Every structure is written in C-alpha cells, then in structure tokens.
C-alpha cells in the first residue's frame, strides 16, 4: 500500500489476510483488521482466540505465514522486531516493566531515553524536547504530584498509569495495551478509560480487554476474535447482539455471572 492508498483507506494500521501457525496449529486464520488514526479499538475474544498472536505479529515477535501488515502505508510484515518501536508502535504487556526503586519521573526519563535506541540511551542528559515530553506525560497520567515518589510506593492502578506513561514517553502513533485495567478498582478502571479517551486525541490505541465495565466506558468499536478468526466487528451494541458472539463469548460470561 502506498502513502496515497493509506490516505484513501484512512488506516494507520491495516492487516490483510493474516495467517499464523505454530507447528501446524493455525492460531490466526486469514484475519483482516484495520484501525484509523486517533481511534480506540477494543480487541476481545475468549482465551486462546489469537489476540496476543495478532499483536505479537504486529510488533514482529511472531512471523506470519501469509498476509501483510501495513503501518502508515508501509508493509512492515518483514521488519525486524528491534526496528518496530522506532517506527512508532509500542506495546505494553501485562507484566510490569516499572523499576521500583526509581522515581516516577526517572522511570519516564528512562523510557524516553530507551525510545532513542542504544546510543540515545547512553546519553546522560535528555534533550529539552524529551524533558518537556516527560513533564507533559507525568501530567497526562495523573502522577504529577507523585513525580518524585519511588515507583514501589505507588498504588497498583498508579503503577499501571506509570507504565502507560512509559509507553507515551516514546510518543508513538500506535499504542497497544494488554489488559490495562487488570487488578484495578472500579474507580481506577473508570479513570483509566478516561485517560485512554484523552490519549486517543494524539495516538491510536488498541486495547485487549475482557472487562465489560471498562469496555462500556471506553465507548469504542470492538473486534472479536474467536479460534483465530475475526468473528465480528462494530460498536458494542452490534457485537453484543451478534448471536455468534453471544454463544462463544458473552454467553459464557453470562453463564458465569449466573453461576
Ligand atoms: N509460541 C506458541 N507456540 C505454540 N502455540 C502457541 C504459541 N503462541 C500461541 N499459541 C497458541 O495459539 C493460540 C492463540 O493464542 P493467543 O495467546 O494468541 O490467544 P489469546 O487470545 O491472546 O488468549 P489469552 O486471552 O488466553 O491470552 C492458543 O491456542 C495458543 O496456545
């Protein structure tokens, strides 16, 4: 896809006909998926549906057997993993990456340095643009008052926001968040939904999550994967009313709720 085609389709990320298999097991089967600049998209699906594999393929950790991945109009299907961050794609995993003994600000500075690659990370001082970015990010993730506090003293939700901040420090156009509200209180979950909506003004965000309260708060379009196939896409009502989704995913949750 050329830059012109990207403008025509309007997609920041466009995945076409993606098939991925592990030793003959097909984890993704001819998946199409695209997100527009500034969009928040929720990626749902039961365990083993292929959500992580889809994200892993975007960041070059897993290679596709077939299909193409276009980012800002460029085919990145064969771009090595170590180059993907530099292109402006950042993924936050569920496992914490915060350094507990460093302050909030120091963690953010480190993330800003790392985004500059190996040589950039060796620089002792940050450029003005980077320090400005760190000050901006610390406000965005609502940790301004705790900027000098060691990360280990933060509440669980605050640590998750710091991690989102560390992704933001690199200022990537595309952010992928893996269950950002896991373990959060209802109030922290609501604040996280608000934060993600604010961030979507400058970034495109793909969120993998199962928490229906959070998904409702996000008010974003949803893509549902099931057994490696894209089952349904649309707004939350469309997805909720889809019979296949009800039987394979939401139905299961209802049963659990009534158990
Ligand atoms: N490296 C691998 N080798 C073999 N099989 C794998 C590998 N990675 C994933 N799979 C399989 O591919 C399928 C999709 O896994 P994936 O982790 O993408 O699902 P998921 O939707 O992210 O699930 P969960 O919500 O449980 O994280 C699963 O059946 C999984 O066992």
Explain what this protein looks like in three dimensions.
The strands form 2 sheets. Strands 6-7-8-3-9-10 form a 6-stranded mixed sheet, with helices on both faces. The protein is of the alpha/beta class. The N and C termini lie far apart (49 Å). Helix content is 42%, strand content 23%. It has 11 helices and 10 strands. The chain has helices at residues 3-9, 51-58, 81-87, 104-114, 117-122, 128-140, 156-168, 186-199, 212-218, 236-241, 243-258; strands spanning 13-22, 25-35, 40-44, 66-71, 74-75, 89-92, 174-178, 204-208, 221-226, 229-234. Helix 4 (104-114) crosses helix 6 and helix 4 (104-114) runs parallel beside helix 7 (156-168). It has a domain at 1-80 and 208-259: P-loop containing nucleotide triphosphate hydrolases (Rossmann fold, 3-Layer(aba) Sandwich). The protein is globular and about 50 Å long. Adenosine-5'-triphosphate is lined by residues 22, 25, 27, 45, 47-53. GO terms for molecular function: ATP binding. Keywords: ATP-binding, Nucleotide-binding, Transport. Residues 13-252 form the ABC transporter domain.
């Amino acid at each position: 896809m050329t830059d012109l085609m990207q403008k025509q389709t309007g997609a920041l990320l466009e995945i076409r006909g993606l098939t991925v298999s592990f030793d003959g097991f097909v984890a993704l089967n001819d998946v199409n998926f695209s997100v527009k600049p500034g969009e928040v998209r929720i990626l749902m699906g039961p365990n083993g549906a292929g959500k992580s594999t889809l994200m892993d393929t975007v960041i070059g950790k897993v290679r596709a057997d077939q299909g193409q991945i276009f980012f800002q109009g460029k085919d990145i299907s064969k771009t090595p993993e170590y180059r993907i961050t530099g292109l402006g794609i950042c993924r936050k995993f569920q496992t914490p990456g915060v350094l507990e003994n460093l302050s909030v600000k120091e963690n953010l500075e480190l993330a800003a340095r790392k985004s500059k690659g190996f040589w950039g990370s060796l620089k002792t001082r940050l450029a003005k643009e980077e320090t400005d970015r760190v000050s901006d990010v610390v406000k965005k993730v609502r940790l301004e008052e705790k900027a000098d506090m060691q990360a280990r003293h933060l509440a669980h939700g605050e640590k998750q926001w710091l991690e989102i901040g560390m992704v933001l420090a690199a200022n990537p156009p595309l952010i992928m968040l893996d269950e950002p509200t896991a373990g959060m209180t209802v109030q922290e979950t609501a604040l996280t939904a608000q934060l993600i909506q604010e961030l979507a003004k400058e970034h495109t965000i793909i969120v993998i999550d199962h928490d229906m309260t959070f998904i409702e708060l996000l008010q974003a379009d949803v893509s549902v994967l099931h057994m490696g196939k894209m089952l349904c896409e649309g707004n939350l009502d469309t997805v909720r009313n889809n019979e296949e989704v009800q039987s394979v995913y939401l139905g299961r949750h209802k049963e659990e709720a009534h158990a």
